[in-house]
Specification:
The complex is a heterodimer of chains A (261) and B (247). With 261 residues, chain A is mostly helical. Chain A has twelve helices and two strands; from the N terminus they run ααααββαααααααα. Chain B is built from nine helices and ten strands. Classes of the chains: A mainly alpha (261), B alpha/beta (247).
Chain lengths: 261, 247
C-alpha cells in the first residue's frame, strides 16, 4: 500500500467523497441541473417578459431585471438544500453511508465531502440561470464580488442545512416538509418577486425577519447595484447564517446523528 | 504506526446500552491474536453485530476500551485503527450511483489510498472475485451472489490486516459459499487476521482456529473448537453451542 502520514488518509478520503458527490450531481443532470434552471427561466419569461409590462418599473429597474437575482438565489438555496438532504438520506437509507463513515475520515472530512455536492450543484444552477436569463433580459452585474459572496454564502448555508436534515430524517416525507413548508415559503416571502417598499406593516416587519430576504437583497445589490438595506447588513447576515449552519452541521456529524448508533 | 506484538483486536469491559434500555454489550472482554482465524458465534440479539459495529466505528460504546493492533478504535488513534480494518457488513449495502469498479476505487480512497493505487487494486479485486465483466455495471444490477462478492472485495480493497466478516455467507448458494471459504482461507494463509461471525456452526468449525460464544453481551466461552468440544463433553461444536444457549 502507498504509505502516507496518518493525516493524509483523511484528506484523500475527503477528496474521494467530494468527487463522488459532485459526480452524482453531474450524472443525474436531467434531474439535478435542468429542472431548476428551466423553472427559473420560465419564471423570468412569464413574470418578467410576459407580465412585466403591467408592472414596468420596480425600485427604478424594469421588472424583468428586478426578479433575476432573486430567482437565481432561489435556485441556489433550494437546490443546495435538496441535494444534500436527499443524497445523505439516500446513503443512510440504503446503508452505503457506512462505507465512508467507517473509514479513517473524521466528522470534518465527512461534512466537507457531503457539502461539495450541494455547493457544486447550486452554484452550477446559479451560473446557468444567470446565463440563461441573459437570453431574455439584459441585466448588469454591478458588483461581482458581492454577488459571488451572496451566492456562495447561500449555497453553504443551505447545503449545511440539507446535511442536517438528511442526517436527522427518518423518512422522505420529513425532507419534503422542510423543503416545501419551510424553505419554499421563506424564499417566496423573501422579496424575490417584489420590493419590500411595496409592503405595508406587518408584512414589511415579517419580511425583515426572513433571513432569505437578506440573501436576495445581497444578490440584488451584486447584480443591479441597488439594495433595500445596507449591503454590509445583508451580506453579514448571509455569511453569518452560513457560518451558523456549518457549525450546526459539523456538530451533527461529530455527534454521529443518523450514522453512528 | 500500528503497535507490533499487540493483539489484532482487544476489547476490555465494553458496554453498550441502546436507547430504550436494551443492553447489547455487558462488559465484554475479548482478545484476538494477530494472524488468527477467529469465529464469533451466538444467537440473534447476543451482541455480535453490535460488537463488530463498535470495532469499526459505527456504534459508540458507552464504556470500555477497544484497540486494534494496539490503537484505540475511538478518538485518538482511530485513523490508524480504521485503516487496519476491512469490514464486510451483514447487510449488502452498496452505492447505487457509481459503477462497480468506481465503487471499489472510491472505497480505497476513503481509506487513504492514492487514486492510482486504488484503481490498480480495484482491478486486482475484480479479477480475484470474478467480477471483471461487471466492472462498469451498477451494483443494483448485479445478482445477489455477485453483490456478496463485491462486498467482500470492497472490504479487502485497502489491504486491511484485520478482516471482519459479518455473516458473509448468509443467503448464498453452496457453490458461492465454498468459493468464499476458499478465498477467506487464502487471505488467512497470507497473514490476515480474520474475525468471522456466522450462524452456520459447521462453517466456524471448518474455518476457524478459535471460536468465542457470545450471549447476553458477554463472551461465555472461548477457545479452539477441539478444546471447547472437550471442555463441554460434546461431539460437535453445535452441541457446545446448544449447551451454552440453554437448549
Amino acid at each position: 500500500m502507498t504509505t502516507a502520514p496518518l493525516a493524509a488518509p483523511r484528506w484523500r478520503g475527503l477528496a474521494a467523497l467530494a468527487e463522488r458527490e459532485v459526480l452524482r450531481v453531474l450524472r443525474l443532470w436531467t434531474q439535478t441541473i435542468v429542472p431548476p434552471v428551466v423553472a427559473a427561466v420560465l419564471f423570468i419569461v412569464v413574470f418578467g417578459v410576459a407580465l412585466g409590462n403591467s408592472i414596468r418599473v420596480i425600485d427604478g429597474f424594469p421588472y424583468e431585471q428586478f426578479i433575476v437575482p432573486g430567482l437565481v438565489l432561489m435556485g441556489v438555496a433550494t437546490s443546495a438544500f435538496g441535494n444534500n438532504a436527499t443524497s445523505i438520506y439516500q446513503a443512510r437509507n440504503d446503508g452505503f453511508i457506512e462505507d465512508p463513515a467507517s473509514s479513517p475520515m473524521g466528522p470534518t472530512q465527512l461534512l466537507l465531502g457531503y457539502l461539495a455536492g450541494g455547493v457544486a450543484r447550486s452554484l452550477l444552477i446559479g451560473g446557468l440561470t444567470l446565463a440563461a436569463a441573459r437570453i431574455f433580459v439584459d441585466y448588469p452585474v454591478e458588483d461581482p464580488l458581492v454577488l459571488a459572496a451572496a451566492l456562495i454564502g447561500t449555497s453553504l448555508a443551505f447545503s449545511a442545512l440539507g446535511a442536517v436534515v438528511g442526517l436527522h430524517s427518518t423518512g422522505w416525507e420529513q425532507q419534503n416538509v422542510v423543503g416545501n413548508l419551510v424553505i419554499q415559503p421563506l424564499v417566496f416571502l423573501g422579496g424575490v418577486f417584489y420590493s419590500i417598499e411595496a409592503l405595508s406593516q406587518p408584512w414589511r416587519a415579517l419580511t425583515h425577519a426572513d433571513p432569505i430576504f437578506y440573501m436576495v437583497v445581497a444578490a440584488r445589490h451584486g447584480t443591479l447595484g441597488s439594495s433595500e438595506v445596507p449591503v454590509a447588513l445583508s451580506l453579514g447576515i448571509t455569511l453569518g447564517l452560513a457560518a451558523a449552519m456549518l457549525i450546526w452541521a459539523w456538530v451533527t456529524f461529530i455527534r454521529g446523528v443518523g450514522i453512528r448508533t | 504506526m500500528i503497535a507490533d506484538g499487540a493483539p489484532a483486536l482487544a476489547c476490555e469491559g465494553v458496554h453498550k446500552t441502546f436507547p430504550g434500555g436494551v443492553e447489547a454489550l455487558a462488559g465484554l472482554d475479548l482478545a484476538i491474536p494477530e494472524g488468527s482465524f477467529f469465529g464469533l458465534l451466538g444467537p440473534n440479539g447476543a451482541g455480535k453485530t453490535t460488537l463488530i459495529r463498535s470495532v469499526v466505528g459505527l456504534t459508540r460504546p458507552d464504556a470500555g476500551a477497544i484497540r486494534v493492533f494496539g490503537r484505540r478504535a475511538w478518538g485518538e488513534g482511530a485513523t490508524a485503527a480504521r485503516r487496519a480494518i476491512g469490514y464486510a457488513p451483514q447487510e449488502v449495502a452498496l452505492d447505487r450511483f457509481v459503477p462497480v469498479r468506481e465503487s471499489l476505487t472510491l472505497h480505497g480512497r476513503y481509506f487513504g489510498m492514492s487514486r492510482a493505487d486504488a484503481r490498480h487494486r480495484a482491478d486486482e479485486m475484480l479479477m480475484a472475485f470474478d467480477l471483471s465483466a461487471k466492472a462498469d455495471d451498477y451494483a443494483h444490477h448485479l445478482s445477489g451472489g455477485m453483490r456478496r462478492r463485491l462486498l467482500l472485495a470492497r472490504a479487502l480493497l485497502h489491504r486491511p490486516r484485520l478482516v471482519i466478516l459479518d455473516e458473509p455467507t448468509a443467503g448464498v448458494d453452496l457453490e458461492l459459499r465454498y468459493d468464499l471459504w476458499a478465498y477467506i482461507r487464502s487471505l488467512h494463509a497470507d497473514g490476515s487476521t480474520i474475525l468471522l461471525t456466522t450462524h452456520y456452526i459447521e462453517e466456524a468449525e471448518a474455518l476457524c482456529e478459535r471460536v468465542a460464544f457470545i450471549r447476553g453481551g458477554r463472551i461465555v466461552a472461548d477457545g479452539p473448537p477441539s478444546d471447547l468440544r472437550e471442555r463441554f463433553g460434546a461431539a460437535r461444536l453445535e452441541d457446545v453451542y446448544l449447551q451454552l444457549v440453554g437448549r
